[in-house]
Amino acid sequence: MTNQITVMERAPSTARGHMISGYELPSAQLARARDRLGRLAMLMSVVWSVATGLMAVVAPLDTRVPHDSLIAYLFFFALTMVATLALLVATRIKSLSDAFVLNLGLVYEVVLCFMISYVMIWRFYVDTGWMPAATWIGVIMVMYPLIIPSPPQRTLLAALAATATVPVSILILNLNGTIPFNWIDYVSMTIDPLICVAIAVFGSRVLHGMHQDVARASELGSYRLQKRLGSGGMGEVWMAEHRLLSRPAAIKVMSPQAIGGSNEDVSVLMKRFKREAQATSMMHSEHTIDLFDFGITEDGLLYYVMELLEGFDMEYLVEEWGPVRPERAVCLMRQVCHSLGEAHESGLIHRDVKPANLYVCRYGRDHDFVKVLDFGLVKHSDESRLDDAKLTAANIAGGTPAYMSPEQILGHKPADGRSDVYALGCVGYWLLTGQLVFDGSTPMETMVHHTRTQPAAPSERTEIEVPQRLEEIILSCLEKDPDDRPQNVDELDDALGGVPLDEEWTEDRAREWWSVHRPMSPRSEQ
User: Fold this and answer.
1) Cα separation of 275 and 272, whole Å?
2) Residue 291 belongs to some domain of the structure
3) Distance (Å, whole) CA 455 – CA 157
4) Which end of the chain, N or C, is surrounded by fewer C-beta atoms within 10 Å?
5) How far is Cα 116 from Cα 435, in angstroms, rounded to an integer?
6) What does the alpha-carbon distance between residue 65 and residue 502 come to, in Å, rounded to a whole number?
7) Any idea what DSSP says for residue 222?
């Protein structure tokens, strides 16, 4: 799967933790409620604009409507439209917290109910001489909790305030002489809204409880899932937040059952997952993804928690901006060597080195800083081939065809650090040319090419001028026989460091590139 571990620009409310201002819900759910409220305000803005326009055109043609009444009607319609537009604007102002905006939504509910109560009672009495049996505010009170998942207490307060708009409207109409005083009107017209208050509170209790259940179901250990960043056959990557520290993180979640295989395969995977997560957490290379936590849920989901990075993978880098300059490719590859070197010394072989697992970041004050991902399911160099065969048979850890070494594909030799060297050579080829070394019509055809076909020189497949020495190094990494490649990543790193370049890829150049392109969350919606 493609791991998109990307910082998202977050609303100010999320910075204070996952429980916001008495709503007792995660910030992500409140943000979605805010979005729904904004959509409602947009719809109501259109409705009230059309209604005001129709009133201005049609009402003057009705001789039964006095001129003063027409002006009053237009005033109330226009006032409601202004209140709706104000709410719409509030939902778009990022400096306002989600909780504040949702509270404004509850205030808008009361204002809307008052406008409807006053106009309906007034118009109905003027037309018929009788008080209406009911108004539309009951529908609004019952439907509102579906949009704003407020706690029952807040729903109760808002609904009671909305109900009070009926007797308040009658009182105002009594005082200005529009309708005569009759205490029965106050009682009879308040009964229905009070019934709707009970329904609204009950519905709010149920829905708010469901939202809390969803929030609890979205917790893994001390972290709360907020937004899915990527997904694939092996699982999903989520943006998450520590429940107490408010620290952002990325969580990879995998279900052994979803991967398939027998119970024995699942057991082997779980053991390997735990062992490799522990090993990864002990790695200290600054170019290896930091692992904060790992575990297995009661439902059998495997997960590990990583640092949340701001940037994009090398696959996206080339797809979006084209092949990179040789000096930049050398800089990026050498950072990967730093990470893989420590892994190999610890007896870990990545086996899935590919552009999608190599992340280019803004990291603190550094730019073009590389982080190597997916160290959760690597292979120990001393693992028995029987154990490895089990995992491969279950389609659990086979690698990616476009970047697999011949020995990984054929299985005639144990994979070691030189398999990662081969894959890194494929990555360098991609960076320089924007093309795969071999691109068969099927994965099997691609793997056959890796075992039999000699690759074309990178300079033959790109318009960028590739230094001859760099091309020789890339092609040496792609040798079929592991003995003919650089024998470890340190040797490869030294070779890359000796490539004669017209100019170096410096921090200043990297900073300038990032300041121009300012890439942010390239595939955050996946």
Assistant:
1) 5
2) yes
3) 72
4) C
5) 64
6) 85
7) T
- Identify whether 352 is a catalytic site residue: yes
Q: Is residue 43 scored above 60 in pLDDT?
A: yes
3 state DSSP class of 507: helix
295: in domain:
yes
Q: 343 is written with which tokens?
A: 């892994």
Single-letter amino acid code for the residue at 525: E
pLDDT higher than 60, residue 388: no
Q: Return the structure tokens found at 320.
A: 């979006």
How does DSSP assign 241-268, residue by residue? EETTT--EEEEEEE-HHHH---HHHHHH
Tokens describing residue 9: 């620009």
Q: Which positions ≥6 away from 202 have C-beta within 8 Å? A: none
Asked whether residue 17 is assigned to any structural domain, the reply reads no
pLDDT digits (tens, 9 = 90+) for 150-195: 788 888 999 999 999 999 999 988 888 888 888 888 888 888 889 9
* C-beta separation of 334 from 286 below 8 A: no
Which neighbouring-strand residues pair with 231?
236
d(CA 90, CA 96): 7
Give me the number of domains the chain comprises. Answer: 3
Give the confidence band of 467 by pLDDT, cuts at 50, 70, 90: very high
Domain containing 292: what range?
Answer: 220-306
- First-to-last alpha carbon distance for the chain, in angstroms, is 11
236 φ/ψ angles, rounded to the nearest 5 degrees: -135, 155
- Do 128 and 233 share a domain, yes or no? no
Q: Could you say which of 185, 265, 313, 352 is catalytic?
A: 352
User: What's the alpha-carbon Rg for the chain, to the nearest Å?
Assistant: 32
One DSSP character per residue, 20-71 reads: -TT--S-HHHHHHHHHHHHHHHHHHHHHHHHHHHHHHHHGGG-TTS-HHHHH
* Residue 345 to residue 417: CA distance in whole angstroms: 9
Host H or E run for residue 378: none
| Alpha-carbon span 86 to 108, nearest angstrom | 10
